[in-house]
Amino acid sequence: MNAILITACPSGMATTFLAARRLEQAAERLGWQTTVEMHGELEPVQPVSAEAIAAADLIVVAADHVPDPQRFKGKPLFRATIDQALPDPGGFLERARREAEAFVPGGETHATPVSRTGAAAATAGGQSIVAVTACPTGVAHTFMAAEALAEAGKALGHPIRVETQGSVGAQDQLTEAEIRDAEVVILACDIEVDPTRFAGKRIYRTSTGSALKQPKPTIEAALAEAAVEDGSAPAAGGGEARKSLKEKGVYKHLLTGVSFMLPMVVAGGLLIALSFVFGIEAFQEEGTLPAALMQIGGGTAFALMVPVLAGYIAYSIADRPGIAPGMIGGMLASEIGAGFIGGILAGFLAGYVAKAVTRYVKLPASVESLKPILIIPLVASLVTGLVMIYIVGEPVAAILSGLTDFLENMGSTNALLLGGLLGAMMCFDMGGPVNKAAYTFGVGLLASETYAPMAAIMAAGMVPAIGMGISSFVAKSKFSEPEREAGKASFVLGFCFISEGAIPFAAKDPLRVIPVSMVGGAVTGALSMLFGAKLMAPHGGIFVLLIPNAITPALLYLAAIVIGSLITGLGYAAIKRGGQAVAVEAGA
């Protein structure tokens, strides 16, 4: 293959030359003979010769437009923006060879494969689809949504491959070849994921909840509405335009921060609990193992919670330039006593300042490359730090201190009300935005060493799934065989603190399942607060009881879960109508 490679970026800076070198190296690996033409400001343009054009089998243009287009008339030509060439130059060249068309000067937008992948692709059958699912905790929704999409794609006749980005990292990872051959990419993610490897592909963004509950409509909408995004930024049209606030913007940024913070909280809480195995105050003796465990868990892991939360909220908003100012703002929030509330504010402030500098600060071409490593971190960190110290810090610290004092000193009536409210929220949408709001509140308070709300939240979160398992066992005559099998799975998921196990039941019979689950959850949450239960780790379900002092008092806490689960299970068994099949199959 004899090819001509042409690169040009809007600023004319290093990207032009980097793209040219990477494409040239990729072409060598493919065994191509290449001639390169670079359009930049660091050295004069050396146009390819007429002889080279005449001998070329393919013209590859990585630029916003074709330079001097008349010279390529009738030649097989492929054009796409330069940011689509950088992540995977080999795949970019393969795509160019596959999709190039005879070039017509003046009509290059029609010759670009990217521009002609719209409605025709949406109406064709058997299209190749790749997808990524990711929820904030990376446990249940991630994998259930993946299974639902896989089943729905199979039912609709579309080959589909789904990658899960869960709590243990990416699994079933998509290969470069699968991404290259895919016609549509579905990103069913509640947190920010790196979209650069899908550059040049038609992308449809949605939430894991939508993919789980409506997998077939999600795939159909993706085929009809997916659009090529400009670089790594979300497309302005298509499905994204109609998404609610909870699926983008503030909600998604917050959940991204919580997702990255969660491992710190879990590790830190369990290490603190392990230090308590030797005695509640054993860590106070320096040089001992309990002291070391407390230093690792409380002194280090918990100290990183708020900076990581703030840093990855900012990352979700402004990408990598937001991480440094976000973490700096989060550390300041911790030092001045503003806690997780201050960290959230610092993350959003740092992210939007970094994004504003990226978008609106225009620099001479000669220093533009310094922006991401010098200008953005400096300006965003300075603005965030000064605002946190002189404006936000003290008022937020006072609010957090007041909230902490209230939670620590509230009477039994207030404890019952708070526990009941948090418990009902956890059971209202079983992993949805209301559930996540309560969960985020509990996790955030752990940074302030306030452990009671988190205990009530996790206990109540187990109730819906355990309750459905109990109900399917107690009232077998009202449940079909598939329902009883779903009940067994739900029972196990409930023990693991995976509320989503009750979703198949709630999807079919929401007017009965949701209210009875909320009642059971509210009772469990209220009892947990009344018993003074404290939880060191925000996940793990019933199995955290195996770690001494991770939950106190353990027996009363277990009793609260049993009582609430029995209320939900027996209550639903009493009010359920027989003969209604639960939608246990993904995509049903």
Automatic annotation (TrEMBL):
It is an enzyme of class 2 (transferase). The chain crosses the membrane at residues 254-280, 292-315, 327-353, 373-393, 414-431, 451-474, 513-533, 554-575. It is a multi-pass membrane protein. SUPFAM superfamilies: PTS system IIB component-like. Keywords: Cell membrane, Kinase, Membrane, Phosphoprotein, Phosphotransferase system, Sugar transport, Transferase, Transmembrane, Transmembrane helix, Transport. Its EC number is 2.7.1.202. It catalyses: D-fructose(out) + N(pros)-phospho-L-histidyl-[protein] = D-fructose 1-phosphate(in) + L-histidyl-[protein]. It is found in: Cell inner membrane. CDD domains: PTS_IIB_fructose (cd05569). Residues 1-98, 129-224 form the PTS EIIB type-2 domain. Residues 250-584 form the PTS EIIC type-2 domain. The keyword Transmembrane applies. PANTHER family: FRUCTOSE-LIKE PERMEASE, FRUCTOSE-LIKE PTS SYSTEM EIIBC COMPONENT-RELATED. NCBIfam families: FRU, PRK10474.1, PTS_IIC_fructo. This is protein-N(pi)-phosphohistidine--D-fructose phosphotransferase. It comes from Halomonas halophila.
